[in-house]
Write a structure and sequence with these properties.
Aminopeptidase; 4 helices; 169 residues
Length: 169
């Protein structure tokens, strides 16, 4: 039997599990524009910032459920730009390729529409993150802009970042 995925709002008891997801991605310096030397407190303060609606994705059956992914949803901008949402997703490395990011994206699209957003936009997707870009394109996002050499990749040096967008109506 394949373990099922479910999503629920994150709470304080999820902080350790979320840090186990955030830390390897932050430290790798390959996909997120966050300081590689951030502490647990720095990362969790960012993830749970005011205005972020934070969710966790659990995998398992019955009482044997583990947090394997997390995402936040927020307004991309303030005031006149607040009708466009922004989201950020991270998946536990052991759960890569298991549909976690896909499930979180689907959930965030529904959630963003329910909150009255008219679009979901990814402001800064590292161009070398081919798996993520391919997934977002399968979900109906399109690249709407490119920032040349905007990201200092840990092993590749300066690479481009792209902005991706999908209307919700």
């Amino acid at each position: 039997m394949t373990p099922s995925l479910s999503l629920r709002p994150a709470n304080d008891i999820d902080r350790d599990a979320i840090w186990r997801i955030l830390e390897p991605t932050i430290r790798a310096g390959e996909t997120w524009a966050l300081p590689r030397d951030w502490t647990r407190d720095d990362a969790l303060t960012y993830w749970f910032a005011a205005g972020h609606e934070v969710w966790v994705c659990e995998r398992g059956n019955g009482d044997a459920r583990d947090v394997v992914g997390t995402y936040f949803l927020r307004a991309a901008q303030l005031g006149p730009g607040a009708h466009v949402a922004n989201a950020g997703y991270m998946v536990l490395p052991d759960a890569w390729g298991c549909g976690v990011a896909s499930a979180m994206c689907d959930h965030s699209l529904i959630r963003a529409a329910a909150l009255g957003f008219t679009a979901l936009q990814f402001n800064f997707v590292v161009s070398t993150n081919a798996r993520a870009i391919a997934l977002w394109e399968r979900k109906g996002f399109r690249i709407i802009g490119r920032s040349p050499l905007a990201y200092q990749h840990a092993t590749l040096g300066a690479v481009d970042a792209v902005m991706m967008h999908r209307a919700l109506y």
